[in-house]
UniProtKB/TrEMBL annotation:
Residues 11-65 form the HTH cro/C1-type domain. CDD domains: cupin_XRE_C, HTH_XRE. This is Helix-turn-helix domain-containing protein. InterPro entries: Cro/C1-type_HTH, Cupin_2, Lambda_DNA-bd_dom_sf, RmlC-like_jellyroll, RmlC_Cupin_sf, TransReg_Diox_bact_type. Keywords: DNA-binding, Transcription, Transcription regulation. The lineage of its organism: Bacteria, Pseudomonadati, Pseudomonadota, Gammaproteobacteria, Vibrionales. Pfam families: Cupin_2, HTH_3. The keyword Cell inner membrane does not apply. The keyword DNA-binding applies. GO terms for cellular component: cytosol. One of its GO terms (molecular function) is DNA-binding transcription factor activity. Coiled coil: none annotated.
Length: 190
């Protein structure tokens, strides 16, 4: 699967750029040295939750793991992303992830399109302090669990919340629910 190759290559690149050993990376992320090594060698595929855990521990954006090459712009420019989707965008049979705009340091955010099959719930661990999520329901009906409550969204409705808490996205309608997620990171060395 193409995404596994990108995750493997990018994890190794990010770890080396930060001058980290596998032991130190394990300490920072809470993911075992053995698992990190398996991911880097392409032997194991991390779950979305595990990949977020690694990204948070390394203080980098999630999209830096799944895109072919990092976007490095000091000044934002016009960028049109393709609407071409492949089977690789499906993380599993129930959850779809498409990076619309990868993280750019000059902007401080990344944008995703996500899809949930009927009745599916995706649970997310807390991100780093200061991370803010903006979720916009594009189609279907969904609920977001944050701030100890469920918040229902229909098509065109949106919610903003702190990503520094465990949170969930759940499809509560018929058919697939599709939403956009804009994740804003606080100014750091992402």
């Amino acid at each position: 699967m193409q995404i596994d190759q990108e995750v493997s290559k990018n994890l190794r690149r990010i770890r080396k750029e930060k001058g980290l050993t596998l032991d130190k990376t394990a300490e920072l992320t809470g993911v075992s040295k053995a698992m990190l090594s398996q991911i880097e060698r392409g032997v194991s595929s991390p779950t979305i939750a595990r990949l977020w855990q690694i990204a948070s521990g390394l203080n980098v954006s999630f999209s830096q793991f799944v895109i072919a090459s990092p976007v490095i712009n000091t000044q934002p420019n016009t960028l049109k992303m393709s609407d071409d989707r492949s089977a690789d965008d499906w993380v599993n049979d129930d959850f779809f992830v498409n990076v619309l705009f990868p993280y750019e340091a000059s902007l401080g955010f990344e944008v995703y399109e996500l899809g949930l099959k009927e009745s599916y719930e995706h649970k997310s661990e807390a991100h780093n302090l200061g991370v803010i999520e903006h979720v916009i329901c594009v189609s279907g009906r969904m609920a977001i669990h944050c701030d100890d409550a469920w918040h229902v969204l229909g098509e065109g409705q949106a919610i903003r919340f702190s990503g520094a808490q465990p949170h969930s996205y759940k499809n509560i309608g018929n058919g697939r629910a599709v939403f956009h997620n804009i994740i804003h990171y606080p100014p750091t060395d992402y």
